C-alpha cells in the first residue's frame, strides 16, 4: 500500500512536469538512435574491416589479441567510450531530474562528477551495467544497454538439459541479487561525486536498510505498468472492432489513427515508468542526507524542437502503419526447417525426419555437413557423435562407411546417420531444396571447401540449393570457387553493420535488428533469422522484413505466415502488431 501511495505522489510530480520529462527522455532517445548507435556501429565495422576481421567471438579472440593488437586496442577504446556514454546519459538523467530540469546547474554538477571519474572505474562500471540489466527495462529503457544480453540460442540450449537449466536459474538468481545489492551505485556516484568503488560500498550499505522497500516498489510499479499496457492494448483492439464496421476507406483512416495512438500511449507509459523509477531512486538517496527536490525549472527553448520531432515521428509511423494495415509491405519470408525436423518429428539431419518434414513444404531444409576421415561428407551437427549415437568420436575420426553404419537417437526417434550423397538423393526424390551449412573444425583437410565445391558445386547450382557457414574463411573460399552459389555468413550476434563477401546473412534472431536488415537490403543481401520457434517472434521478424526464418517448427511458421499476411480485418492486423511487439518487449 505504501508503494502505491509513493507511485501516486511521483505520478503527480510527473503530471505537473510531463512536458519536461518528455523532452528529457525523447532527447536522449533521439541521440541514441541517430548519433551514438550509428557512430559505434560504424566505428566497429570500420575497425574490423581495416583489420580484415569479419567478426568478434570467443573462437577468434586469441587471434585478434595476438595477431591484431591494434584492432584489439581500438575495440577496447571503443568499449571504454561506450561505457562512458552510458554513464553520462544516466548521470545527466539523474542530475536533471534531481535539479528539476535546471540544465545549467545539472551540467555544472556533471562537470564535478567528471573530476571524480577515473579510467579505472570503467571496469567496475562494465560489471555494474551488466548487473543492472534485469532492472533496465523498468528504470530506463535504452538500446545501448539492451545489447547487453545473452543471445537466445544460448538460453534455448541451456534449457534443454536439467543440469544446465539449474545452472542458468542459479546464474539469474545470483545476478538479480547482485543487481539489487548495487542498484544505487550510479545514483550515489553522481549525487555524492564519488568513485565507483566507494559508491558500490555505499549502495550495499543502503540496500541493507531498504531492500524490502525498493523491491516492493519496483514489483508494484512493474505490475501497474503491465496492467496499463494491457488496458491500452485491449481498448485499442476493441475500438478497432467497432471501427471495422464502417466503410473500408473510413475504417482504414480510423485504424491508422488507432494504431498510431496505441504506439504513442505505449511510449508515454514507458517514459512515465522510467521517470517514476528514477525519481524513486533519487528520493531514497537524498532522503539519507535530508535533502529535498527544488522547484521545477521550465526551459522552453528546447520544447519546440522536441515536439517537432514527435510530430515528425508520428507522421512517419502513420505512413508505415498504412502500409502495414493495407498489406502493401507484406513480405512472406522463406521457410527453412532447422536440421530437417518439424516439432521433434524425428532425429535431426536424418532421412527419416526429412520425409516427414517435407510434407509441410518448407522452402528449404537446413542441414549440417562435416568432413570425414576419408575426406567425404557426412550429415551431422555436433563435432562429437556421442550425444546422438553414443560413440565418443568426431566425424573426422571415422570414414563415411563407418559413420553411415551408426544409428542416432533423439526425442524418442531413431534414424541412420547419412552421407551428403544419400541425403541429396532423398531430397531430390521429394523435390526438396536444401540449405547446406558447412561445419569446419581444426582437424579438417586444407582442401575441405575445394573438395566440397568440386563434388557438389554443380549439384547445388542445378537444384538451386544454398550454402552457409559460421566460418568466414569458408564463406570467402566458396565465393572464390563458385560465385554463382548463394553463400550466407552465419552470425551468432549483431555487433556491426553488414559488410562481408557473403551474399547474405543468417543471424541469431534475438540480436537481429530492423536496421541491420535494412542495411543488408541496400546491398542486395538477404537476411535469415535463426532459430525462431515462438509465434510472436516469427511475426516480429516478418514485420521487420526478414527474408527467411529458420525454425524447428515449420508447421507453426506456415500458420503464422498465413495468419500474419492474410487479408483480414484491421482489428486482426492490429492484434498481429501487438503480438509481434508484446508488452515490455
Protein model, in words:
The chain has 585 residues and is an alpha/beta fold. It has two domains: 2-145 and 182-326, no CATH class; 334-566, Alpha-Beta Barrel (TIM Barrel). It has 23 helices and eleven strands. The strands form two sheets. An eight-stranded parallel β-barrel has the order 1-2-6-7-8-9-10-11, surrounded by five helices. Strands 4-5 form a two-stranded antiparallel ribbon. Helix 21 links the parallel strand 10 and strand 11 (548-551). The two termini are 28 Å apart.
Oligomer: single chain
Number of strands: 11
* Strand order of the biggest β-sheet: 1-2-6-7-8-9-10-11
Termini Cα gap: 28 Å
Record the SSE blueprint.
Layout: H1 2-16, H2 18-50, H3 61-67, H4 69-98, H5 103-115, H6 121-139, H7 143-146, H8 152-158, H9 162-181, H10 185-192, H11 196-243, H12 248-287, H13 303-326, E1 334-337, H14 351-357, E2 364-371, E3 377-379, H15 386-389, H16 400-403, E4 407-410, E5 413-416, H17 420-429, E6 434-438, H18 448-462, E7 466-469, H19 472-481, E8 487-491, E9 504-508, H20 514-522, E10 526-530, H21 535-543, E11 548-551, H22 554-565, H23 570-580
Helix pairs in contact: 1-11, 1-12, 2-4, 2-12, 2-13, 4-5, 4-10, 4-12, 6-9, 6-11, 10-11, 11-12, 11-23, 12-13, 21-22, 21-23
GO molecular function: phosphoric diester hydrolase activity
Pfam family, one: GDPD
Organism: Lactobacillus kitasatonis DSM 16761 = JCM 1039
